[in-house]
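[recover] target loaded
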């Protein structure tokens, strides 16, 4: 379900001769997206399954016969079926424009014409729509390699150490998101959650480094540098969101966009879409982001905005897997009240601690 359905902008797109409406929504003009990412368009062009459920489905021409036959929806065996087979998985057509790709314990659900997918029930945003090609519905090559493969192979993270670097977003002169009526600044919540998480992880014998321990501004490039100097096994940047649409709410997690792929809040590959040091961990970044997002949504029972990809500056130069978490919207009246309570922030920290602890290597490899 689209959490931010207000004021939709309708775009008419011609695809394979089939006119389909894709509804674009104003979702995330989060300040740090503009600051940390070269991706020029902060507004989402992702259509939701609910919206696309009413789309007209492409219909194959029916050969003329003497007896009337029902119209047959064209779903050739190529496309996603072949892509699944290449990874030792099985694709199933569930009807109503929904497909499933299964392998072992993982199931990725796809919707025809949509960028919204679901991995074991957690929303994952595709780089490009799951669309009709010459061999039937298929994922783009970019999604085959960077979404389907890590989604169903559940790659090992292979972390180099048990050192965790936490990055409380913003600080000092840069408040991040602001809720004026509650007098709450994002930078303060980011630091509060990070300090709670530090305590939980250290209680389990994990070495934790924060990019800032108080209210000061740390340049973006210094944040990944601190992680690299610390021999970090994992890097987590902690933020809270805001949007012009005051109905937008929920949790989303970002992994670095793979080289040449489209970021989640864009509709095409922009400039600066090449290879960065952090792209050495594309598969691990996906898996880490998925684990964090999945557990947060389960534990906090907030709207699942999905695992997304963006070229945030704090993620680009990492020499370890990393993720940026948006823990809730300060621009949403009720959610702001919630995130402003220590109880909720402790739950956030506990959920993040569980994801991190489950991902760290065994004690024997401790550095
Ligand atoms: Zn932020």
């Amino acid at each position: 379900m689209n959490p931010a359905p207000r004021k939709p902008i309708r775009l008419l797109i011609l695809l394979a001769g089939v006119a389909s409406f894709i509804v674009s929504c104003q979702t995330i003009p989060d300040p740090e997206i503009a600051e940390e990412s070269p991706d020029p368009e902060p507004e989402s062009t992702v259509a939701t399954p609910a919206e696309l459920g009413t789309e007209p489905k492409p219909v194959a021409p029916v050969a003329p016969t003497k007896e009337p036959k029902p119209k047959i929806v064209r779903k050739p065996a190529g496309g996603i079926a072949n892509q699944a087979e290449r990874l030792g998985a099985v694709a199933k057509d569930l009807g109503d424009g929904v497909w499933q790709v299964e392998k072992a314990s993982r199931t990725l659900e796809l919707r025809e014409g949509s960028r919204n997918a679901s991995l074991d029930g957690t929303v994952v945003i595709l780089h490009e729509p799951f669309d009709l090609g010459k061999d039937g519905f298929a994922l783009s090559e970019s999604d085959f390699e960077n979404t389907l493969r890590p989604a169903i192979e559940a790659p090992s993270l292979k972390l180099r150490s048990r050192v965790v670097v936490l990055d409380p977003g913003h600080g000092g002169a840069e408040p991040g998101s602001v809720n004026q009526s509650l007098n709450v600044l994002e930078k303060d919540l980011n630091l509060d959650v990070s300090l709670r998480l530090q305590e939980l992880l250290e209680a389990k014998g994990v070495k934790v480094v924060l990019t800032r321990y108080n209210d000061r501004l740390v340049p973006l490039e210094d944040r990944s540098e601190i992680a690299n100097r610390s021999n970090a096994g994992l890097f987590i940047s902690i933020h809270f969101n805001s949007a012009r649409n005051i109905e937008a709410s929920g949790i989303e997690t970002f992994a670095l966009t793979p080289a040449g792929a489209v970021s989640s809040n864009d509709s095409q590959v922009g400039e600066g879409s090449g290879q960065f040091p952090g792209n050495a961990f594309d598969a691990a970044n996906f898996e880490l982001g998925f684990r964090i997002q999945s557990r947060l949504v389960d534990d906090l029972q907030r709207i699942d905005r999905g695992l997304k990809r963006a070229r945030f500056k704090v993620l680009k130069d990492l020499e370890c897997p990393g993720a940026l978490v948006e823990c809730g919207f300060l621009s949403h009246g009720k959610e702001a009240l919630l995130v402003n309570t220590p109880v909720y922030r402790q739950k956030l920290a506990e959920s993040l601690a569980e994801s991190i602890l489950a991902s760290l290597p065994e004690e024997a490899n401790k550095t």
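[recover] notes: The chain is about 30% helix and 25% strand.
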